[in-house]
């Protein structure tokens, strides 16, 4: 008898099983299939993800993903050195940019975090810093309700980043970051992407 997929995944017309959130919107499906959970081990990419996760706080990821081209244009393609040099004139420019989420606190956080990213280069860099919080085990969720929203590792990462000058990096936001960049694997067990990062086998 054929084993049915767990009730957390939806098998699409292409025969591939995905969670519900990645099964309808083509943009989210493509993001899930090609990017979400793929290890990010470069400073530029990691700074961009931290920035976008901060902007996502309180909003849907779909909103942020649709605006990502606008964010990249507005924030110098998330080059930490260039963003670190932004001043109040840049803040005013960004507050008037309809292609991004115009939130003063989050805009300031992105600039603050660029400066913290540059400063971390003196002690091993952002990538080594963040990846040092990879836990010994990863969740193995059958359904979306099995996926936690924070962990001991995300709490520890949040505290450590705050100590070195980062803001808007709460434990829930950092858990989402850890999922997105492959530090943990929260793909549902029956998803076609489970284990695809190469980090967890």
Automatic annotation (TrEMBL):
Q: Which UniProt keywords apply?
A: Metal-binding, Zinc
- Which PANTHER family does the annotation name? DNA-3-METHYLADENINE GLYCOSYLASE 1, DNA-3-METHYLADENINE GLYCOSYLASE I
Question: Single GO molecular-function term?
Answer: metal ion binding
What Gene3D superfamilies does its record include? Answer: Hypothetical protein, domain 2
InterPro entries assigned: Adenine_glyco, DNA-3mA_glycosylase, DNA_glycosylase
| Superkingdom of origin organism | Bacteria
- Does the entry feature the keyword Kinase, yes or no? no
Where Zn(2+) is bound, by residue? 187
Question: Biological process GO terms, please?
Answer: base-excision repair
Coiled-coil stretches noted in the UniProt entry, renumbered to this chain: none
Question: Which Pfam families does the protein's record reference?
Answer: Adenine_glyco
What organism is recorded for this protein?
Answer: Cryobacterium lyxosi
Q: What is this protein called?
A: DNA-3-methyladenine glycosylase I
């Amino acid at each position: 008898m054929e084993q049915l997929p767990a009730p957390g995944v939806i098998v699409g017309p292409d025969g591939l099983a995905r969670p519900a959130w990645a099964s309808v919107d083509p943009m989210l499906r493509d993001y899930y299939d090609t990017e979400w959970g793929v290890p990010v081990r470069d400073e530029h990419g990691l700074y961009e993800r931290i920035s976008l996760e901060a902007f996502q706080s309180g909003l849907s990821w779909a909103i942020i993903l649709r605006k990502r081209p606008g964010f990249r244009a507005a924030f110098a393609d998330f080059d930490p050195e260039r963003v670190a040099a932004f001043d109040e004139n840049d803040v005013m420019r960004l507050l008037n940019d309809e292609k991004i989420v115009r939130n003063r606190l989050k805009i300031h956080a992105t600039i603050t975090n660029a400066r913290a990213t540059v400063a971390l280069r003196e002690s091993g860099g952002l990538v080594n810093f963040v990846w040092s919080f990879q836990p010994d085990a990863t969740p193995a969720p059958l359904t979306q309700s099995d996926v936690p929203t924070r962990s001991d590792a995300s709490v520890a990462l949040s505290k450590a980043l705050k100590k070195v000058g980062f803001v808007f990096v709460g434990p829930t936001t950092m858990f989402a970051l850890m999922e997105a960049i492959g530090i943990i694997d929260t793909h549902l067990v029956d998803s076609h992407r489970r284990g695809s990062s190469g980090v967890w086998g």
